[in-house]
Amino acid sequence: xxxxxxxxxxxxxxxxxxxxxxxxxxxxxxxxxxxxxxxxxxxxxxxxxxxxxxxxxxxxxxxxxxxxxxxxxxxxxxxxxxxxxxxxxxxxx
Length: 93
Known about the structure:
With 93 residues, the protein is mostly helical. The protein has 4 helices and no strands. The longest helix has 12 residues, at 74-85. The radius of gyration is 23 Å and the shape is elongated.
């Protein structure tokens, strides 16, 4: 959860919060402990970059009907067309 919050802050261009100093953390119970958490963000960034997002587009009804009848995968078609337009190799990203 911390990794996703940090990625959200980074995407918004906001600074990461400064960690609290252990001396400034008040423990409420004798069983409370301070735990240091280290987050290595690159794997989370890679996963976020490859996450599928919705992008709506419009096509004529006749084209949709023909595509549906042919069993076309519109998402795959759009992805391939965008990769081609950006000159991205089919297997990259």
